[in-house]
Amino acid sequence: MADKKLVEILVTGAVIWNEYRQKNHILRPDLSGVDLARADLAFADLSQGGLRDSNLSDADLHATDLSGAKLSGAKLALADLRWADLSGADLSGADLSGATLVEADLSEADLRGANLHAASLGEANLSGANLSEAYMIGADLRGVNVTGADLSRAECWETLFVNVRLGGAKGLELLKHYGPSVVDHRTLTLNPSLPLEFLRGCGLPDFIIENRHVLYGDPIQFYSCFISYSSADQNFAERLYNDLQGKGIRCWFAPEDLKTGDRFRERINEAIRIHDKLLLILSENSIQSDWVETEVEKAFAEERRRSKDSAPTPERPTVLFPIRVDDEIRTTKMAWADHIRNTRHIGDFTRWKDHDAYQKAFERLLRDLRASGAAVSESEKEPSA
User: What is the mean pLDDT of residues 112-140?
Assistant: First the structure.
């Protein structure tokens, strides 16, 4: 319940309010449930204030200090919050539809379930903010900093992701897209490893998605892959495929891309020729597969061709990257598999159902697939002995 005396002082204006608060050391003024629609509160010090369920619709709050304020359920529709300090504020469930938040500081703010429909957030700081389940349809995010923010299950449609910094943002692959949104070239350049689900959800054409590293000047960080496996290992193959795509690695495998009626051998030749690496999933199933054996033969032939066509070098071009999901490769009598066992390092994914073991093996695979000259992140480096 709002303190009536405080409300009376506040509506007189920011100058008197700020002086009163400073003299009386009001640490957390209780203004919850108050009706301050269309009030002029610009430059007021409302930091740490209790403003739950308050009505601040169409209020002038530009340059207001609302840091740490409790604004859950508050009505802020059409409010002017330019340059306002909302860092660490609780805005969960608040109605910010049509509000102007240009250059506002919303870092570490709680915006869970907030209504940001048609809100203007140009150049705002949303780093570390919790935007999970926020309603962002029609929101203008031009120049916004969303690094480290949580956008899980936020709702988008005609949302403007223009010159947006999304580094370390969580839940981008979980956004709910009810229609296409705008993602400009600067956002793609600033964030070279955006999840495939996010890009497709925003409606970007496949051509742009597949070629964004070339189109927007980002150097290719990883070799592309053609994944060879037995259909009996579909679950593992799909998990690996999705995780590689999530890291920005271009992948291709038969069940998704081969069309009925295609001449399989021609498609295999084409796929292995245009992709850098053949990622072979070795298992009891694949070792018995004539299909997989054919792909391996083509990979060996491609290695010989690339070695012949390339300039003299101490290392032969490696096309075949084998990984195993069981121990069959250790005992098999199949000649082609025996050759791989004796000549290649084989990645160990035998414990792929264990999260930690899978992640460790996956990080090693990422290092192996990193393009020559590409920088290695700290998380990908081998631990020192």
Answer: 97
All structural domains of the chain, each given as residue ranges with its CATH number in brackets, are 225-380 (3.40.50.10140)
Check: pTM over 0.85? Answer yes or no: no
Contact between residue 50 and residue 29 where contact means Cβ atoms under 8 Å apart: yes
Name the strand (E) or helix (H) holding 242: helix 234-246
Decide the pairing of beta strands 225-228 and 182-183: unpaired
Report in angstroms the alpha-carbon separations of 314 from 212, 231, 302, 307, 311: 32, 37, 18, 11, 10
Burial code of 40-66, b = ≥16 C-beta within 10 A, e = fewer? ebbbbbbbbbbbbbbbbbbbbbbbbbb
Half-sphere exposure of 179 (CA within 13 A, CB side): 7
Measured between alpha carbons, how far is 64 from 82 in angstroms, rounded to an integer? 9
Q: How many CA atoms lie within 13 A of 68 on its CB side?
A: 7
Distance CA 314, CA 111 (A): 56
* pLDDT tens-digit readout, 330-345: 998 888 888 888 888 8
Cα dihedral across residues 229, 198, 274, 350: positive or negative? negative
pLDDT tens across 2-32, in order? 788 899 999 999 999 999 998 887 778 999 9
φ, ψ of residue 317 to 5 degrees: the values are -60, 125
Lookup result for tokens 């496996």: 229
- pLDDT for res 225: 78
Residue closest to 153 by CA, chosen among 113, 196, 193, 110: 113
Cα gap 23→260, rounded to integer Å: 79
Task: Return the bridge partners of 309, or none.
Answer: none
Cα–Cα separations (whole angstroms), residue 370 to 91, 105, 206, 301: 42, 37, 23, 22
Helix, strand, coil share of the chain (percent; to 5) = 35, 15, 50
Residues in the chain: 385
For 350-377, write each residue's pLDDT tens digit: 999 999 999 999 999 888 877 544 444 4
> What distance, in Å, lies between the first and last C-alpha atoms of the chain?
61
User: Where are any strands of DSSP class E within 144-258?
Assistant: 155-156, 160-161, 176-177, 182-183, 225-228, 251-253
Check residue 130 and give left, alpha or beta (phi > 0: left; psi -120 to 50: alpha): beta
Count Cβ atoms below 10 Å from residue 269 Cβ, excluding itself. Answer: 16
Answer yes or no: is pLDDT of 312 > 70: no
